[in-house]
Design brief:
By secondary structure, the protein is of the alpha+beta class. The chain is 28% helix and 20% strand. Strands 1, 2, 3 and 4 form a 4-stranded mixed β-sheet that branches. Helix 1 packs across helix 3. The N and C termini lie far apart (96 Å). It is elongated and about 65 Å long. The protein is built from 3 helices and 4 strands.
Length: 162
């Protein structure tokens, strides 16, 4: 009797005999939905960026952060490679399934601060929950300033070179 070499081929269940003891290496192992295997962690900075972008989209929000942080941010923005900080004025605490946010905003003169705060909360909560799947338990908003129409904008003041 002679041995004949067998070709390597993926093992599949023998449907004719009902024997599924041979499994494809691609077959589901370990049971359960693949989406539930493992953990996803989201950094505080990720939530801060999402919240910062969502807050800036609201009409009536002039800027984010306190006067001091905006001043330092304006200097940093002018440094090559410094870039604009999306997280300025945003602080997030992220747990396993929930997050809490603190925002500091500057509103435009003449707008209803309570309406702007409500709109910021709604926009931030919707964006963070949609993008991260985290439950937003609170969004605290501190209005640190009102931008008057005749005030020079700190972030866009001209630099003079000599």
């Amino acid at each position: 009797m002679t041995d004949t070499p067998q070709r390597n081929r993926p093992e599949t269940p023998d449907h004719a005999t009902g024997d599924d003891s041979r499994r494809s290496p691609l077959a589901k192992r370990g049971g359960g939905d693949p989406a539930t295997r493992g953990r996803t962690t989201i950094a505080d900075g990720v939530v801060e960026k999402i919240a910062g972008m969502a807050a800036r989209d609201v009409v009536g929000v002039h800027a984010m952060g306190s006067g001091l942080s905006r001043t330092f941010g304006a200097v940093r923005d002018r440094v090559p490679g410094g870039g604009k900080s999306v997280t300025r004025g945003v602080k997030a605490e992220v747990g396993e399934s929930q997050t809490a946010l603190d925002l500091e905003i500057v509103v435009d003169y003449g707008v209803s601060i309570s309406d702007v705060a409500r709109d910021v909360r709604e926009n931030v909560i919707a964006a963070v929950e949609r993008m991260t799947g985290l439950e937003v338990v609170e969004v605290n908003i501190a209005v640190s300033d009102v931008k008057l129409p005749d005030e020079e904008d700190e972030d866009q003041s001209e630099t003079r070179l000599q």
